[in-house]
Amino acid sequence: MGISDRRTRRGVAVTIGALAVLVAALPRAAAQDATGIDPAALPRGADPAVAHLVRDTIRDGDLRVPATTRGRHEALWAVAGGYVVRDYNVGRSRSTVLTFISRSGQQRVVARSRHWVEAAVSPSGRRLAVQTWHGALEKRSDITVVGPRTGRVVARRELRLATLAAVTESRVLVGRRAHWRDPATQWWNYETDRWWRIHGQAAVGADVRQDKVVFATPGRGEFCNRVAVLSRRRGRGGAAAGSTPTSGRRTAATSSPPTLTSTPQARTGGGSPTAARRSVWPRSPAGSTGTRSGRTTSTS
Regarding predicted confidence, which is higher, 19 or 129? Predict the structure, then answer.
């Protein structure tokens, strides 16, 4: 073996030894850095600027309001007169429950279902739109507009293959036939019961304040969404003013505050219910006072 070979091997051995020392030192250095951080010593950030949930309490600035205590909190909206909380896995039936909570802590159930309950709040907070599904295949649903403070039903419509996207003081944005043939997005003026089409794709969500809408644009074998300007009308015109959509039925408004309840059979594997369900609107006590609007987030 030549001198150059011995020097090469010796250099490689020295390099490997140095790397081993560095690798062994890294975990100790990382552990020292991690244990050296004291969360209590970190500067406190600003308080949340919106209402939010901390466990079972709604925190809105200096106000503390007891929230619901059954199930798991999923969403919180600030509305006129108080707040609306959506809980799931409530009770033995694992229902989804929508509850209005006044700023003084009084509670009233707005909707209850063993399946999902969709909700949207108008920018002013004076209108709450609720969507509940019924039927064996959940193709039909009821969209109901109520005043959250009093629970008074303003309008109600039964629709087929519809998705609640947004609500304003006089209109509801509905996506029709999302992920199906011939999709569309329509405005429903629930005060005059008029419909008009604004896009040839189905809306699955919208933010009226930001003038944005989310469309479902699936390709073959995939699901894809895109965001567009809500006020920019595209696609062919739809139903004429004063006409009603296919498979729709409107129910007259009532002055009694409702509680929407659904009583379907339990789901089977794969998400299909085993039997049809029906929706009823029994009386419930009235709500109370306050002012605020907009959806907020929930934290545990």
Answer: 129
